């Protein structure tokens, strides 16, 4: 009968190791007699453990003969709240693990707004990563997947995990409790999502990250869809919820939800829920607005181009079809034609004479000088020049 009980206990412990237990505390391995020296030494360590945690700024490691104990409180703890939490965890261990050599309890007291850890072993664990067994405390409530976009929620949740993990494992604090991170995030469909991670400060940053990642993976694989939960291991704790806890978020600024990921058109069409209809309603007007905007931009550019051409014509006397007539100062014309010297006269028309001229640049030109009293007006003169611009002949100088 005793052998059967031993086998059952071994199977139970194996199951706990693989799947965790539904509690914040755990008792494992060998037992000791009630009146043994091990029990007396453990009680002796327990008697001063809470005060020593305060004295050592939140974390304390102690041993007495073959008994070893570790205790810590959440960063930012109130003195008396930390003492109350550690003493509560000690009572849980003494009651539920009264004859077990190995135990740990990640406890909390929301009334005192604090969380803490007490761990006992029959060997030193200081500086050693403890990954198992794991404990769990999962919300009994499910997220309503019929009304919530679980794909979007998971993307936001994963990003919040990454933020919290980075805050917890990047050691930039001078606090003894160096591995600690909290995030209050605003999701698209949840106004507040709270997340906390903490490791014992005696392990490395890489070990802390590994411990927390295993907690996250355990929750994601086993309890995804629940409205929060806690996963504890001997060296770390991970918790998230839809409400604040442990007093850890009093001075934390809520961060906005991560950017909403781009949803390809094929995925948008495949959505059959009401949310899919909302997406269609939003996307179609957006595309129409884009086309309208492009049309307005094109019309504006054409109008601007037209105005630019008009302004050019105003400055340089445009005569037609973007062709324009250059104007020269009278002094330049007189210089080029030798004051309209008779020697430079090369022709006579109905409304005036034509003179040969040479500009300072060396370019030869022909200049028509209206006869005084000519009946040719400005309009006729412009038309004549326009006609000349459209003629091409090797002896025609423009």
Automatic annotation (TrEMBL):
Residue stretches making up the Gnk2-homologous domain: 20-125, 138-245
Binding annotation for ATP: 368
InterPro entries: GNK2 (IPR002902), GNK2_sf (IPR038408), Kinase-like_dom_sf (IPR011009), Prot_kinase_dom (IPR000719), Protein_kinase_ATP_BS (IPR017441), Ser-Thr/Tyr_kinase_cat_dom (IPR001245)
Record-level Gene Ontology MF annotations: ATP binding; protein kinase activity
UniProt signal peptide: 1-23
Domain Protein kinase: 340-398
SUPFAM superfamilies: Protein kinase-like (PK-like)
Highest taxon of source: Eukaryota
TM segment ranges: 279-297
Keywords linked to the UniProt accession: ATP-binding, Membrane, Nucleotide-binding, Repeat, Signal, Transmembrane, Transmembrane helix
Protein name listed in UniProt: Cysteine-rich receptor-like protein kinase 38
Record organism: Raphanus sativus (Radish)
Designated gene of the protein: LOC108838120
């Amino acid at each position: 009968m005793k052998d059967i009980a031993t086998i059952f206990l071994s199977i139970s412990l194996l199951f706990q190791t693989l799947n965790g237990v539904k509690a914040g505390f755990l008792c494992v391995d060998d037992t000791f007699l009630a009146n043994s020296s091990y029990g007396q030494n453990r009680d002796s360590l327990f008697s001063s453990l809470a005060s020593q945690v305060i004295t050592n700024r939140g974390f304390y490691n102690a041993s007495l003969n073959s008994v070893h104990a570790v205790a810590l409180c959440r960063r930012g703890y109130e003195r008396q709240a930390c003492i109350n939490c550690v003493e509560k965890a000690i009572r849980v261990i003494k009651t539920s693990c009264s004859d077990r050599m190995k135990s740990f309890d990640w406890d909390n007291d929301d009334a005192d707004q604090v969380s803490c850890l007490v761990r006992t072993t029959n060997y030193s664990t200081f500086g050693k990563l403890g990954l198992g067994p794991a404990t769990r405390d999962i919300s009994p409530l499910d997220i309503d997947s019929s009304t919530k976009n679980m794909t979007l929620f998971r993307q936001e949740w994963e990003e919040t995990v990454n933020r919290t993990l980075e805050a917890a494992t990047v050691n930039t604090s001078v606090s003894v409790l160096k591995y600690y991170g909290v995030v209050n995030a605003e999701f698209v469909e949840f106004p507040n999502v709270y997340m906390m991670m903490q490791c014992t400060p005696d392990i490395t940053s890489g070990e802390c990250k590994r411990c927390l990642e295993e907690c996250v993976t355990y929750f994601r694989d086993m309890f995804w869809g629940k409205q929060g939960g806690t996963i504890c291991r001997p060296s770390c704790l991970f918790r998230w919820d839809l409400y604040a806890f442990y007093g850890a978020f009093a001075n934390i600024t809520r961060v906005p939800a991560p950017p909403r990921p781009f949803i390809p058109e094929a995925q948008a069409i495949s959505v059959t829920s009401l949310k899919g209809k909302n997406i269609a309603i939003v996307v179609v007007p957006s595309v129409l607005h884009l086309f309208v905007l492009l049309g307005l931009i094109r019309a504006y550019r054409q109008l601007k181009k037209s105005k630019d051409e008009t302004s050019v014509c105003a400055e340089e006397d445009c005569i037609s079809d973007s062709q324009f007539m250059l104007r020269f100062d009278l002094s330049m014309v007189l210089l080029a034609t030798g004051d309209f010297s008779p020697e430079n006269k090369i022709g006579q028309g109905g409304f005036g004479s034509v003179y040969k001229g040479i500009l300072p640049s060396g370019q030869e030109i022909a200049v028509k000088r209206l006869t005084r009293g000519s009946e040719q007006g400005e309009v006729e003169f412009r038309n004549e020049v326009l006609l000349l611009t459209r003629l091409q002949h090797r002896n025609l100088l423009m």
